[in-house]
Each structure stands twice: as structure tokens, then as C-alpha cells.
Specification:
With 426 residues, this protein is an alpha/beta fold. 38% of the residues lie in helices and 13% in strands. Helix 8 packs across helix 9 and helix 13 packs antiparallel against helix 14. The chain binds ligand PBG. The site of ligand PBG has 11 residues, from helix 10. Ligand PBG binds next to helix 10.
């Protein structure tokens, strides 16, 4: 409503008459109250941010140097003549609304908007998920344009190098495991010479200062495609799975992982992992718990990437019901008590309320996972010209931060960091 009100000398006079402050009409230069010219010059700047940057001349048309010389000589500029910017033909002439509060005042210039910005984002907030495989070539992932299963010896190292170049120093690894190595109990998960431990050692050797997060769950190693061991009646066995996960996390820690990240949603796994890590002397290895991980359809493209779709059924007996909010507090309390260092919410954008809930109920750092489906939707809509991919990407990441996420796991990490570094697309 306020945005349609534009000033003309006529309605400013109406304001003067009504407010009864006794100022002379704005039509006369000599009697212009201070607010007049200020409003006017602000209006000029607001009209275009580029114009503001290019404004090396005073409104009088003289150069800044000429204005300074005059000021030194004691000649100060007179208030500019009051010429109100013209409104388009047909704009209704109305009395300005009588409002003490006009929130738009705090948005009127780039400098003010920057000063009052509540949320910031930097490449340091990003964790880049990387898919790895045993192959030498990088294989494109159909459902995730721009993402690849990276060859662990070549493509992966190059990707990490490029990410570091734009300030992304944190990575989480997801392995594509050959079918021959999968089993019902997922024992390949704790093979010290398996793909993940080998890759960690290689990365740490080449880039000692990066932070390596690992995924702790059986699904990439399970012939059933589930995060845990499946009993013959289809039940996912909790405590037996946790036993395997402890061996997996210890193996990752031994290889040099900085943060192990259980994404499996078994009960009690945080406490068990903490004890197992400590028992082996890994007191400094952190645990990022997938605290509120929902049984979401937004994981579809990821499961294609790893070929890890559950062979039967779904994950609803361990991942949370997307309809639930309070239940996230139960998981939060358990993870905090059991010694989690970071709490994660997944997916990200459709679950902003859960991110805020955890932010307000825990002092621990909060992570948000912008998952594969969120990534692919933005990519697809961008490719079809329906949205501006880069702007929607940056906005979605900022929104995750605003909701309360400290770090964001995102496939956009490199692209977004490049934008933040002023390096434009890609
Ligand atoms: C499995 C795991 C999944 C994701 C991360 N770890 C998939 C699942 O739970 O089925 C999904 C990530 C994404 O969609 O980007 N432990």
C-alpha cells in the first residue's frame, strides 16, 4: 500500500496543512524544511543501486572536486530547489497515510540495508558432500546435474582442490560400493582398507588442514539398502546395528576422520559411538548426529547416486514422520545427553521450523542438510528458465542460516562459495 504513494508538491502541501506545523509550502526554496531535500536525495539513490555507485557528481552537476573547492572558499551550497520526482501520469493524488512507523525507511539504501542485515553467510559455513567410487573416471549422476561419482584418486582430489580455492574446507564422503561387497550385515563398512578409510588417508595426506566428515550408516554397504541389519520379518535390528556402526566409526576415526556423522537414526547410537571412540583413544573425534532425520522423498536423487534404494519397504521405522515436530525434541534431548557435538536437521528447506526448534532448544551448533532433492529441484527449474538458479540457490542457503543453521551441507557449496568470493558463476 505505502509503495503506491508517491509525493508530489500537491500532496506534500496537503500534509503540511493537515499536520499544522506552520511550515511554508514546499514550493518555495528558501523555506524548505530539512526533511524535504533529504527525502529527495534519498529518492534519487533508491531509484538505482548502480546510479548510486556512479554518482561522482553532485546533484548540481558539478564535480566533487569543484564542490570541495567551493566549500574551502567558504561558499556552501544552498539547499537544492525542491523538485519532486514525477510520478507517472494517472497516479492518484492522495493524502499521505498518517503513519508513525514506515518500516521501508530502514530499507531505503544499500548502505542501510547492509547495516541492518541480520544474517550473514560465508564459505566457512558450508560442508560439501562428495560421492566417491573405485573407478578412475568421474561418472555424472543423472538426477543431480553437476554432481559426479568422483574417482577417489583423481577427480576427488581435484574437486577438493577447487573447493578450497573458494574457501570451502569441510567435506562429507559418501561411497558408491560395488554390489559384490554388499552384505546383509554391511561388514564392508568397517574394512580399514575400504574405499572410505583409504580416501580419508589420501585426502589427509594431501590436504592436512581440511575437515573430513564421514557418514555412519550401513545403507551403502547393505545388500538390503537399509541403514541397519534387517531381520527375516523385515524388522531393522537396533542394537545389533549400533554394534556395527561403532566398528564403522572407529575405523573412520583410525583413518583420520574429524567428525563422524551417524545418519542411521538407530536409538542410542550417539552414546554407544562416543564410548567406542573414547575406548580407542579418539576423544577428539567429534560426532555430528543426524538428530532430526525425516523419512523424506527428497532423498530420491541421492539414492540413485549411490544405487542405495531400499530393496523392499521404506525407512519409516527409523527415520522420522514428516508430520512430526515435537518428536524432534525427544531426539534432541537424547543426542545432547549422549554426547553429540553437532545436531543436524534433514532435509533443509522444507524443515525450517525444525531447524529453528533445535536452535532455540540447544546451545550446540546446528547443521542443516540441503538434500539431493532440494538441489535437483533448483537445478531443474533453473535449467528450464523458470527461476534464476543462482539467486534461488543463494536465497535458499541464506534462509537455512536465518532459521538457525550454523553449517549447511549442500551440493551447491562450491558454486555458492564462488559467488560469495565475488567470482560469479561456477
Ligand atoms: C543414508 C543417507 C541418505 C542421505 C544421506 N545419508 C539417504 C537415506 O537416508 O536414504 C540423503 C542425502 C541426500 O538426499 O542428499 N544414510
Amino acid at each position: 500500500m505505502a509503495s503506491t504513494v508517491s509525493f508530489s508538491p500537491a500532496n506534500v502541501q496537503m500534509l503540511q496543512a493537515r499536520s499544522g506545523h506552520g511550515h511554508a509550502a514546499f514550493g518555495s526554496c528558501s523555506a524548505v524544511p530539512r526533511a524535504g531535500p533529504r527525502l529527495r536525495s534519498t529518492a534519487i539513490r533508491v531509484s538505482s543501486e548502480q546510479e548510486a555507485a556512479a554518482a561522482v557528481r553532485a546533484p548540481s552537476g558539478r564535480t566533487i572536486e569543484e564542490c570541495e573547492a567551493d566549500a574551502v572558499a567558504g561558499k556552501f551550497p544552498a539547499p537544492p530547489p525542491l523538485v519532486r520526482p514525477k510520478a507517472p501520469e494517472g497516479t492518484p493524488e492522495i493524502r499521505p497515510l498518517d503513519m508513525a512507523k514506515r518500516p521501508r525507511r530502514n530499507r531505503k539504501s544499500p548502505a542501510l540495508r547492509a547495516a541492518f542485515q541480520e544474517t550473514s553467510i560465508s564459505p566457512a559455513n558450508f560442508v560439501l558432500p562428495l560421492f566417491i567410487h573405485e573407478g578412475e573416471e568421474d561418472a555424472p549422476i543423472g538426477a543431480m546435474p553437476g554432481c559426479y561419482r568422483l574417482g577417489w584418486r583423481h577427480g576427488l582430489l581435484e574437486e577438493v582442490y577447487k573447493a578450497r580455492d573458494v574457501g570451502v574446507n569441510s567435506f562429507v564422503l559418501f561411497p558408491k560400493v560395488p554390489d559384490a561387497l554388499k552384505s546383509p550385515t554391511g561388514d564392508e563398512a568397517y574394512n580399514d582398507n575400504g574405499l572410505v578409510p583409504r580416501t580419508i588417508r589420501l585426502l589427509k595426506d594431501k590436504f592436512p588442514d581440511i575437515v573430513i566428515y564421514t557418514d555412519v550408516a550401513l545403507d551403502p554397504y547393505s545388500s538390503d539398502g537399509h541403514d541397519g541389519i534387517v531381520r527375516e520379518d523385515g524388522v531393522i535390528m537396533n542394537d545389533e546395528t549400533v554394534y556395527q556402526l561403532c566398528k564403522q566409526a572407529v575405523s573412520q576415526a583410525r583413518a583420520g576422520a574429524d567428525v563422524v556423522s551417524p545418519s542411521d537414526m538407530m536409538d542410542g547410537r550417539i552414546g554407544a559411538l562416543r564410548s567406542a571412540l573414547d575406548a580407542e583413544g579418539f576423544h577428539d573425534v567429534s560426532i555430528m548426529s543426524y538428530t532430526a532425520k525425516y523419512a523424506s522423498s527428497f532423498y530420491g536423487p541421492f539414492r540413485e547416486a549411490l544405487d542405495s534404494n531400499p530393496r523392499f519397504g521404506d525407512k519409516k521405522t527409523y527415520q522420522m514422520n514428516p508430520a512430526n515436530y515435537r518428536e524432534a525434541l525427544i531426539e534432541t534431548a537424547a543426542d545432547e545427553a549422549e554426547g553429540a557435538d553437532i545436531l543436524l536437521v534433514k532435509p533443509g528447506l522444507p524443515y525450517l521450523d525444525i531447524i529453528r526448534l533445535l536452535r532455540d532448544n540447544s546451545a550446540l551448533p546446528i547443521a542443516a542438510y540441503q538434500v539431493s532433492g532440494e538441489y535437483s529441484m533448483i537445478k531443474a527449474a533453473g535449467a528450464l528458465g523458470m527461476v534464476d538458479e543462482q539467486k534461488v540457490m543463494m536465497e535458499s542457503l541464506m534462509c537455512l542460516r536465518r532459521a538457525g543453521a550454523d553449517v549447511i551441507l549442500t551440493y551447491f557449496a562450491r558454486h555458492a562459495a564462488a559467488v560469495l568470493c565475488g567470482m560469479g558463476p561456477k
